[in-house]
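Quick start: load a record and inspect it. Here is Major facilitator superfamily (MFS) profile domain-containing protein:
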Amino acid sequence: MDAELNTKYDTKDLKMEKMPEEKQEETDKLVKAIGQFGKWQLMLWLLIASPIKISSAWQQLGIVFIAPATSFMCEETNLTNIIEMNTCYSDCVSYNYYTDFENTIISQFELICEKAWLSNFTQTICMFGVLMGSIIFGFIADRYGRRPALLISCMLLLVTSVGEAFCKVYWLFTAVRFFIGLATAGTMLCSFILMMEIIGPMKRELMNCLCALPMPVGQMLMPLFAYFLRSWNNFCLGVGIPHVLYLAYFFILPESPKWLISVGRLEEASKVMTQAAKWNNLPTDNMLDIAKSIASEKVNSTEPLRKATYLDLLKTKVLRINIFGSCMIWFVLGISYYGSNQYIGQTSSNVFISVLLAGVLQIPGILLSGFFCRYFGRKITMISFLIVCGGSNAFLVVPEDWFAVRLTMGAIGVGCASGAFATMYMYTTEMFPTVARNMAMGASSTVSRVGSMLAPYVAGMTIIAAWLPPVAFAIVPIVGAITCYFLPETRGKTLSDHLS
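Running the structure step on this input writes:
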C-alpha cells in the first residue's frame, strides 16, 4: 500500500516538474508554425519596417533643413541710417535673407522679428500630431487590427508629405505638418508592433535592433537630400515622393496572426500562418487546427471576447505599475534623446555634418542594445543605458574650451539615449497583452512626445545659468533608471494575448 502511494506521489511530482516545459511548448505553437525568424519576417522587415523608420526620421527631424539657421538684414528703411545684421526695424520696408539654402520657411513666410517664434511653433505642432497619432492609431490598431491602422497612416503620410511642398500659406503648412506627425506616429507604432508579433522570443532582440537601425540611417541620408535640394519645398517633395512605395502595402501587408487569434478570427489567422510557413519552408498542414488550439489555451471559449480600452491598463496592479513605469521612462527618453541630439547639433557650424554625425552616433547604441538585451535582459540594459547617459550628460558642465570632452561625452549621451530608446520599444511590447499592446505603446509614446517638446526649453535654460541644462539632462535619466527598477524582466517570455 505504501509502495503504491509512493508511486502515485512520485508520478504526480514528475508531472509537476514537467509542467513548465510543456506549458512553454504550448505557448510557442504560433512560433513553431510560422518560424522564429525566416524569409517571411525578413521580407516584411525590408519592405515595411525599414522604409517606415527611414521616413519617420525625415519627417520628425526634417525641420532642421526646412527652417535652418537664417540671418537677415533690412534692405531698405524710411528713417534708420545705420542697419545691422539680424536686427529688426519698425520702419523697414523689406529684408534680405542669408542662409546656406535657396529658400526656407523663414524667408518664404518672413518668420522673423515678432513672427520668429512661428518657426519653432511649426515643429511643436508636428510633435503634437505625433502625440495625438500615438493615441489614435494605438486604439485603431488594437480595436480594428494592425493592417488597417498601418494602411490608413501610410496613405495619410503619402498625401500630406507630398502636399506639404505646395503649401504657400504658413498656417496651411503648419496644419499639414500636424497631420504628418499624426501619420508618422501611426506608421512607427503599428509597424513595430506587427514585426514584434510575428517574431519568435529567441529572435526578438535581433528584430528590435533591425527595426531601430533604419532610423539613424534615415537621419544620415537626410543631409544628402538637403544638400542637393536647397529649397524647403524641394526638400519636402524629395522626402515625400518615396512614400509612393506605400501603395504596394495594399497587396503585401499581412495582418498580425497573433492579433487575429486574440479576437477570434481564426480562419484569417490560419491563412496568414500558411503564407508565412510557405515562405519559411515549413509544413502548412492543419493551420486552422493550430490556430484553434492556440485560441483555446489563451481564453475560455465560454467567455465572450471583449475589446480592450485604455481603462483596462489601470484595472490590475501589475498593469498599473507597468503603464505608469513605461510612461515615466518614455517621458525621460523624450527629453534625453532629443536633448542629446540638440547638443550634438550645437557642436558644429555645418548643419549637414552635425545631422550626419548625430545619426552615426546612434548606431553603436542600438547594436549594444541588442547584445545586452539578449544576454543580460531588458531591465539591466535599460538601467545601465540610463545611468551612463546621465553620467555623460553631467560632464557637459565643463567649460566650452574643453571641446573634445564635451563632444565625447555628448556622443556617449546620444548613443546611450538611442540604445535606451531601442530597448524600451521592445520592453514595452513585452509588458502588455496583445489586445492592449498598441494602446500601451500609444500612451507611452504620447508621454514621450511631451518630453521631446520640453527638451528645447530645457536646453534653453542657459539664459538663466549655463550649468542648468547639463544638470537637468543628467538628473532626468537617473530618474528613469530608478523607475525601471520597479518593472518586471521580460526576456524570453512569450507575449501574452489577453488581459489577466
